[in-house]
Design goal:
188 residues; alpha/beta
């Protein structure tokens, strides 16, 4: 599992996933990779939500791997490169480029526009991009207008929008970009 940054809407479900694994008798390890500080934040969040739970014996290991911005590494057989982006979250927020079986997926995470996204997504089979609002400037978030402004520079083969507000969900833009939705399955 890859985590772009440590805000609750991107990270906060992990304690529930871990407890579900514990109660369903999971035995295979759970690998969680994310920005520096993810290991401590996971422990702190477990303790905040379920005191004592970070020290509870389990039938499976939890492997927290910290990915430094600018680094390329392999996590659970997936090649990953990380870039720091513009989204304060108590640790560096990351755009991620994942490679597996000859396919590449790039993910903006949450961020204001930065040209780093061009490098991260260059030639990717899929770019999953935040599009929080159409035009409204919300600090540290991408807008559909940002993606339109850089459309010619974004060379990913396919771009799918996610992390959308009601403004975006009520007015999809099917011409330039595909919008993600619950239950969407993508084939590369």
């Amino acid at each position: 599992m890859f985590v772009s940054h440590l805000h609750g809407d991107h990270f906060g479900g992990l304690p529930f996933l871990i407890l579900d694994g514990q109660f369903s008798r999971r035995t295979s390890p759970l690998t969680v990779a994310g920005p520096p500080g993810i290991s401590q934040r996971l422990t702190d969040t477990m303790e905040c939500l379920f005191p004592g739970s970070s020290r509870t014996p389990r039938r499976f290991d939890i492997r927290a791997i910290e990915i430094e911005p600018g680094a390329t590494t392999t996590v659970a057989g997936v090649g990953v490169t990380a870039w720091e982006v513009n989204h304060p979250s108590g640790a560096p927020a990351l755009a991620l480029r994942l490679g597996l079986d000859g396919k590449t997926i790039a993910y903006t995470g949450d961020t204001a526009w930065t040209d780093t996204l061009l490098e991260c997504s260059a030639g990717a089979d899929l770019l999953i991009a935040e599009a929080y609002y159409r035009d409204k400037n919300i600090p540290y978030h991408l807008r559909l207008s940002d993606l339109h402004a850089h459309r010619e520079q974004l060379t990913a083969i396919r771009i799918v929008l996610t992390h959308m507000s009601a403004d975006m969900l009520d007015h999809p833009d099917p011409i330039a970009f595909q919008a993600a939705h619950d239950g969407l399955t993508l084939s590369l």
